[in-house]
Amino acid sequence: MTREELQAAITNLEPQVTFEEAGEFLNAVVPSELCRDLMQALHNMPDLSMDYMFCLTCVDWKTHLTMVYHLESTAHGHQVVIKSQLNRENPEIETLSDIWRTAELLEREVFDLFGVRFIHHPDLRRLLLTDEWEGWPMRKDYEDPINMIKL
Amino acid sequence: MEFSLASIADSIDQWLNAHCASWLALTIEFVIVGVLCIGLFAVLGLVLIMMERKVSAYMQLRLGPNRVGPKGMFQTVADTLKLLVKEGLTPAGADKFLFNLAPFVVMIASMLVLAPIAFAKDFVIWDVNIGVLYVSAVSSIGVIGILMAGWASNNKYSLLGAMRSGAQIVSYELSAGLSILTIVIFSQDMSISSIINSQQDGWWIFKGHIPVIISFVIFIIAVTAETNRAPFDLAEAESELTAGFHTEYSGMKFALFFLAEYVNIFIVCAIGATLYLGGWMPLHIGNWEAFNHIMDYIPSSVWFLGKTFFLIFVIMWFRWTFPRLRIDQLLNLEWKYLLPISMFNLLLATLVAIQGWYF
Amino acid sequence: MDVKEPGYQQQPFPGDVHPTATGGLLVSRLDDVINWARSNSLWPLVFGTSCCAIEMMSTASAKYDWSRFGFEVARATPRQADVIIIAGTIVNKMAPVLKRLYDQMADPKYVIAMGACATSGGPFFYNTYSVVKGADHVIPVDVYVAGCPPRPEALLHALITLQTKIQAGGKREKIVIEKFYDNQ
Amino acid sequence: MLSVNAYSIIFYLLAAFIIGNGVLAMTTRKIFRAAIFLLFSLIGVAGLYFWMHVEFVAAVQVIVYVGGIVVLIIFSIFLTQQTGKDMPRPTNTRMIFSALAAILGAALTYSLIRQYGFIGGSGDQFNVSPQRIGDQMLDYQDTGYALPFEVISILLLAAMIGCIVIALKSKPQES
Amino acid sequence: MGPASLLVLIMAAVAFSTAGILLSKVVLKASKNPVKGEPYECGVPTIGQNWVQFNVGYYLFALIFLIFDVELIFLYPWAVSVQRLGMFAFTEAVIFLFILFMGFLYAHKKGALKWM
Amino acid sequence: MLQEVAKTDTGDLVINVGPQHPSTHGVLHLVITLNGETIKKVEPHLGYIHRSIEKMCESLSYRQFIYSTSRMDYLSAHINNHGCALAVEKGLQIEVPQRAQVIRVLMDELTRLASHQLWWGALAMDVGAITPFFHAFRERELINDIMEETCGARLTMNYMVPGGVMFDLHPDFQKKVKDFLTLFKSKLPEYDELVTGNIIFQNRMKNVGYISKEDAISYGCSGPTARASGVSCDIRKKYPYDIYAQLQFSEAIETAGDCWGRYLVRMEEMRQSISIIEQLIDNIPEGDFVAKTKAVLKLPKGEFFTRVETARGELGIYIVSEGGLTPYRIKFRSPGFSNLSALDHMAKGQKIGDLVAIMGTLDLVIPDIDR
Amino acid sequence: MFLSKYISEVFGGVKSLLTGMRRTGYYFTHHKNIITQQYPNQKPVLAERFRGEVVMTHDENNEHACTGCTACELACPNGTIKIVTKFDITPEGKKKKAIDTFVYHLELCTMCNLCVDACPTGAITMSNSFEHSVFDRSELTKVLNKPGSKIREGVE
Amino acid sequence: MNNIGIEQILFISTALFFIGVYGLFTRRNMITMLMAVELILNSVNINFVSFNKYLYPERLDGVFFTIFIIAIAAAEAAVAIAIIINIYRNHQSIDVEDSEEMKY
Ligand code: SF4
Ligand code: SF4
Ligand code: SF4
């Protein structure tokens, strides 16, 4: 599918989605409550069949966090980026780990580094850092005077 | 043949008996035997480990130890000395008694097997009349030492490794036993000396042709497995169980396991050489008197050691070539291939022996 | 904890002959022999955390072949190892593990810090939140070797350096580190 | 070839070894150790056979008991026990009564043996070569053991089938 | 030498091992720390108990091994005599082995020799 | 007492494999639940080499951050650097000279070869054959020598810079590469003799660690791991970068999905890499090896995503720029991370010995996973 | 049928094993394939581009080309280089910035070559030396400008 | 010291027998009970061999009996352990008192 068709199809699925113009992929921004339903549809719709999640990450914009999901269809070859904004104080979003199995570890990583809580995630624990670690190190305001020596 | 170990032993015996009371002479002889055995143990360990390192090095395009002493010959000496003065720790949670007993059991087992082995003509500690049976009996004590070590260490890897090697050793004892039987059938005796004497006119591997060769192959495979050598080294499979049953052992206690492993290799190869390649018996061909006579000039101990080291080399060759089997494949190999084959081979050998179809 | 027992430091340097009691003479010789054995039989623990481990493997490989020095008996368990070569970055989560491994080694034990990361945190010294700035914050290190990664010869050189240190009975101050390569 | 004294010293050593390990095997509260002491006791018995110059039986004893039964017992201990834990102590009364019964029984039997006063030979002419055993075992006359030889194979077959049937019985429910 | 040599060998082994183990105790003053005595499990504390029971199929092999082992000891005296006694002894062994082979086949068929 | 025992003992054994374990190729920590020798569950614990590279890159300039990526997947150091350089070039819209592109691809493929050689030796060592490891390093050392001569380092080269490469090729480069290729092609049959054909090895590999095509996609597997299950996912084919589009090579695909499939795919990839190098080695165009760039690079505001095929699979580099001197956020989508997540799926129901084989064929590089 | 498959399996397996053994046996007997370089005895052959450590080149007059512009310090990704500058009085009486100490933390350096690339005057280069083993890590912190060295005339 | 005769050997076997009996009485664990039984069987074997050797040195029947007893002991041990393990699987315990309601 071309970018336009994809855009139309997604709008069709979820009218609240907005699109960003720039970027090499189609960037769709979806409210966090609707994210899971949209994703489910993207994965299951036969003409979309976004079965390959090749990246899942989060960006801290100081005012809010943005979840970024990169999806691709191995059958059709089209890609899309879904973004979803979360508030910084209490970031929460539904898990996708049952749709894409790879999301389980990736979401744990995002939880570990950004503190985003994934609702219904089967096993949400720190992944990379020790269990006693405090704070979310990839956030922009993270300070750690002991471990972090600023250049 | 003026020079022979047997004559030296005899003269010592005579000299001692002539000069002291018989009980003293006996005690001294025992002490000499003990010291000799310890010496043999130590030397075997040093030589075999060095040999292993060099063999592996050459197969792997490297040089191997060459910097400690001339041509690296003292490398294992250094290792041994270091192990001697390294701490031998006992884990706090271990069953201390059994943990420390296990190396002794393993050592005693492999020391005991030395008794019936004929190192040269008439040079044997105790030519027991059930020779080969004795060997397979006593060597099975070693497995208890391994199980003990594995259990007493209070470590999961050790326990797993010990269980593995227990199952493996007992399984492969069967086919080793069956292939030994083949030779017993041909030579009609179990004692090592008469087995060797039955090869006066040719080694069994030549005389007994097909059934003996099959049993030889099975024997080599089985003893490789019994000594826990690659490709059957699951008990200490580094990549799976770190170091297997001796994970918690250090210093000299570990060295004893290590040493016993190598001495066991020597022993099984000595048995293999005795059964199939005539032990210390020189290469004799039927009744070619001249040829046989020439061969007799080589001392019998050289024959024995030569054959044994050849077999040891083969076993090392296996180790540095093959990947390791998985535990179920290992047991499959024994129960599905080696055991049935050796059972049929046994009958075949009997038939050949009874009908006199051998040379 | 301390690897270098004070008893050893008081022993004379190899070659010195004690003119006093025979006992003293014998002990000093025995000590030299022991140090010789220890230095020539350094069995490393298979411990590599990252990139430097690959160069450590290269050192074991045929071209560099640390078995020439008798180092090749890499043990998987710390109980049987003599030297732990810290090949790679130590991060905060790994530090307790490293400490534990070191503690579980049987005496005598030696440590080589291989590469920039193990010596000082190296490339990850600044602006990282999870890297230990040098393995010597965790365990005592005997020999440091810089480089990122040090080439296999450099690791061999570190091992030779460690050997000289052991042979001298731990008195590092007196030992001159010998260099074999000069690039002119 | 050994002097009489050494001969008997070895015997007493063996006796002490067998009985000592037997007692330990029956009284230790660690089950794995019990198996090991049992093993030593059995090895001691094998040593006794060697001492008596019945080498074949000694070897059979070692092969079957040490290499087989004890290994099997150890495996079953691994399988069924919390091997690190001590076994519960038997109650004192039971211990005392059992000990009394055993000691009294032993005393009685031994006194009977003393009374009977076996007049054995020195056993010197006793010769048990494998050839003799083999010949007699394969002999189908009255003195031979050909029939038991075959029957034992059936017994072993039965045992094997029995083991497999029993052991595999509860397998499916596990997995 | 007779069976007494076994005693000698045992004593030699014990002397050798004891000497080796004691030497390090004499020469080296080992350091102590609380972690040293703990079991080594790849550098992290162990999970759960170490002396756990073990649900493994090893024991089935041991069972069958035991049976075959007994068979083996009967074959030894047979092997010594068979060549002298000739065909009759051969048939006896054929029957003996055949019966056991049946058991082996049974075990194989029942999957007892398959890894659990 | 009866109930107590029944509750506490399920006959399961939980053991740790790693973080210090010879078969985890680094500091992966796996907590394995065993029933007998059969694996019931594998739970990876990561982070033992989490070096916070992503955070660090946020304070490094666009020229500087590339070096840190060679420390991630150090066996594909060039390819990582290549990906980063591509991302920066995408942002700055730099045209890379032809010569630089060819050099880059040559280096990538040499790296891939070296990485696969190491994998081959390490896999053989994991399943217990030690000699192949040394034979693999014999050839690998030759590549290292070539690298050292041209790039100045053996492992962490930092050779690719935005706009091209750091140095021109060494004059001996072509000859050395050709020598190496002839030698390596004569040694490949030896690899087969020693390992591929070996019956023990085949039995260790076949029907072990199976993963289906759907599962492989769902787990986000890429690279040889996914291709062994029949997923066509070679970025060099799908989204060709630099001059890959003009090259003749085929994507190695197997359908077996087990360790044996992964083994065959990697062996085939080695042959493909050889053919790529052969196509290029005589046709290196003349010209600049680096494009003229400003001394200080500033990416425009926006998001840039590049995907490259490392020896382990698809590496994604996601740069968010706010227009400053340093990236605002960088995320490395590492192939090993996703491949690792499939480990539990693959290892369930297999033996411990198989776990080693599975990890060996996944070819994990732990710093690549932890970053 | 079953039997023939069984037998061919056994023989195939044995043959594959023998092939492997032939290969290792070949190497065992052909020692010319050994590729070991005996490092301390044999000098290693290093490529001239090999990056072993950063050095500052000094000519025979003990002069270097570093102006103290700190470009290298800025280019270095991990703060390996610290430059302490001072002001020299030139013969003309003008004040001129020059380096006092050029501190180089070898223990931090990643041999990435970025500093050498950045240096406008080519004052620093990568050298081949690699034997950096020390007993004390503070010995790895080096001062690159030799004592008493001066900036070469004409370098700006 | 006297020469060792049959009496001393019989003393060992008696002692071993009653040690086994003691174990059989005090132990409540099937495996240890099995061990006790093995000890008892061994004492019998010692008797057979010694009678054979000292009283009827020209014959071999004692030896044969011993061998057959060992064989049967092995078979018995195998079956016993199979049963024990089976009981354990069903009852999670091999204490004899716990498995009185055994359904076999
Ligand atoms: S020093 Fe360099 S090569 Fe070594 S681990 Fe650290 S980053 Fe990797
Ligand atoms: S070395 Fe070069 S870049 Fe660094 S301060 Fe000196 S002149 Fe400037
Ligand atoms: S080589 Fe790299 S790390 Fe070393 S000083 Fe230069 S810029 Fe810094």
Describe this structure in words.
- The complex is a heterooctamer.
- Chain A has a single domain (3-119), classed as Beta Polymerase, domain 2.
- Chain A is 24% helix and 26% strand.
- Chain A is built from 3 helices and 7 strands.
- A 5-stranded mixed sheet of chain A has the order 1-2-5-4-3, covered by helices on one side. Chain A has a two-stranded parallel ribbon with strand order 6-7.
- Chain A is elongated and about 50 Å long.
- The mean pLDDT of chain A is 82.
- By secondary structure, chain B is mostly helical.
- Chain B has one domain.
- The longest helix of chain B is centred in the N-terminal third of the chain and has 38 residues, at 22-59.
- The mean pLDDT of chain B is 81.
- Chain F has 371 residues and is an alpha+beta fold.
- Chain F is built from 16 helices and 8 strands.
- Chain F has helices at residues 2-8, 53-57, 65-69, 77-92, 98-126, 131-151, 173-196, 199-205, 213-218, 223-227, 235-238, 259-281, 335-341, 343-347, 352-362, 366-370; strands spanning 12-17, 29-35, 38-45, 160-161, 164-165, 302-309, 314-321, 329-333.
- In chain F, the strands form 3 sheets. Chain F has a 3-stranded antiparallel sheet. A 3-stranded antiparallel sheet of chain F has the order 6-7-8.
- In chain F, helix 5 (98-126) packs antiparallel against helix 6 (131-151) and helix 6 (131-151) packs antiparallel against helix 7.
- Chain F is globular.
- The mean pLDDT of chain G is 81.
- Chain G folds into 2 domains: 2-33; 53-147, Alpha-Beta Plaits (2-Layer Sandwich), CATH 3.30.70.3270.
- Chain G is built from 3 helices and 8 strands.
- Chain G is elongated.
- Chains in contact: A-C, A-F, B-C, B-D, B-E, B-F, B-G, C-E, C-F, C-G, D-E, D-H, E-F, E-H, F-G, F-H.
- The interface between D and H is large, with 85 and 71 residues.
- The complex binds iron/sulfur cluster (SF4) (3 copies).
- One iron/sulfur cluster binds at residues 54, 75-76, 78, 80-81, 109-115 of chain G.
Which key phrases capture this entry?
heterooctamer; A: 151 residues; alpha/beta; Beta Polymerase, domain 2; two-stranded parallel sheet; 3 helices; 7 strands; D: 175 residues; mainly alpha; Four Helix Bundle (Hemerythrin (Met), subunit A); 2 domains; binds iron/sulfur cluster
Number of DSSP strand runs of chain A: 7
Instruction: Tell me the number of structural domains of chain A.
Output: 1
Task: Name every ligand kind in the structure.
Answer: iron/sulfur cluster
Looking at CATH, the homologous superfamily of chain A is NADH:ubiquinone oxidoreductase Nqo5 subunit
The proportion of residues in beta strands of chain A is 25-35%
Count of structural domains of chain B: 1
Largest sheet of chain A: 5 strands, mixed
Task: List unreliable stretches of 5+ residues of chain A.
Answer: none
SSE run of chain B: HHHHHHHHHHHHHHH
Structural class of chain B: mainly alpha
The residue fraction in helices of chain B comes out at 55-70%
List SSEs of chain A in N-to-C order. Answer: HEEHEEEEHE
